[in-house]
Write a structure and sequence with these properties.
Blueprint lengths: L1 E4 L2 E6 L2 E7 L9 E6 L3 E9 L3 E7 L3 H6 L4 E8 L19 E5 L3 H4 L8 E6 L8 H6 L3 E6 L6 E2 L15 E4 L2 H9 L5 E3 L15 E2 L2 E2 H4 L2 E3 H5 L3
Parallel strand pairs: 8-9, 8-12, 9-10, 10-11, 12-13
Antiparallel strand pairs: 1-7, 2-3, 3-6, 4-5, 4-7, 5-6, 13-16, 14-15
Bound molecules: flavin-adenine dinucleotide and FE2/S2 (inorganic) cluster.
């Protein structure tokens, strides 16, 4: 556990803020840290930017994320988890190949470190006010396609409904709520996805994060969807 100072904050969307701090420069895209705010809570956050200065991006949900948005410093453990396979070991040289990234709202935070020129990003949110990182991803040269539940920006409907009928690529990465990931799988897309699950220890001993026998904090959070939803 170490204490870090907030170096900078950036508003990304409604109720959504990036918090910059020094550290985690060796982390992989898809890894997460545990953020501890004394007297309030400890909870997992994906690294949304990785470097000498890294960031996490919080969507205000409850007491933890609300306190994070006004803290001058906080404590962290980690980084934990496996990260996306593209960024690990032998796969690393394929990092520049075109990818398809599919995210629901704040799920985009864990995918953001991978977004590069010529990638296609499908991003969904409840309305245009809740779409994070769009300008930044377009500035990197990605083709960002938007879906909103209320039709206030882009396709009207869910991000899964907005996908083209035959989405064909070996490199499809996703992050979002479980229902979104299940729907993606049911559409025949066996993406590599980062899972959200209730976490406490983050090191594989308390069993609070396990989904269908998969220990999300230790074996994941990134996994092929068929490991979670069963092979076709
Ligand atoms: C690997 C991973 C990465 C994540 N990355 C992000 C991110 O980048 N940005 C973001 O905004 N959110 C992220 N989350 C979700 C975030 O950790 C939860 O929404 C967290 O509970 C928010 O805390 P809160 O007190 O504001 O919200 P609340 O929902 O009010 O929390 C209520 C209670 O539920 C508990 N709780 C709820 N969900 C979780 C959880 N997943 N793990 C542990 N405790 C939980 C909290 O401890 C708290 O006591 C991630 C979750 C996981 C598993
Ligand atoms: S959070 Fe304790 S086993 Fe995963």
């Amino acid at each position: 556990m170490r204490r870090v100072k907030v170096i900078e904050r950036r508003k990304e969307a409604k109720d959504t803020e990036s918090i910059y701090f020094e550290g985690c420069s060796e982390a992989l895209p898809g890894q997460f840290i545990m953020v501890w705010l004394p007297g309030i809570d400890e909870f997992p956050m994906s690294l949304s930017r990785i470097g000498r200065i890294s960031s996490i991006t919080a969507l205000k949900k409850g007491a933890g994320t609300e306190a994070l948005m006004s803290a001058d410093e906080f404590s962290i453990r980690g980084p934990f988890g496996n990260g996306f396979s593209l960024c690990r070991g032998k796969e690393k040289d394929k990092e520049k190949e075109k990818k398809i990234l599919i995210a629901g709202g704040i799920g985009m935070a864990s995918l953001l470190p991978m977004v590069a020129r010529d990638d296609t990003v499908f991003l969904g949110a409840k309305s245009k006010d809740y779409l994070p990182f769009v300008d930044e991803m377009r500035a990197r040269g990605a083709d960002v396609r938007i879906a909103t539940d209320d039709g206030s920006c882009g396709f009207k409907g869910s991000v899964i409904e907005s996908l083209p009928e035959h989405l064909c690529s070996e490199r499809i990465y996703a992050c979002g709520p479980m229902e979104m990931l299940r729907s993606l799988y049911e559409h025949g897309i066996d993406a590599e996805a980062s899972l959200e699950s209730y976490m406490k220890c983050a090191i594989g001993i308390c069993d609070s994060c396990t989904i269908n026998g998969f220990v999300v904090c230790r074996e994941g959070p990134v996994v092929k969807l068929d490991r979670i939803f069963g092979s076709r």
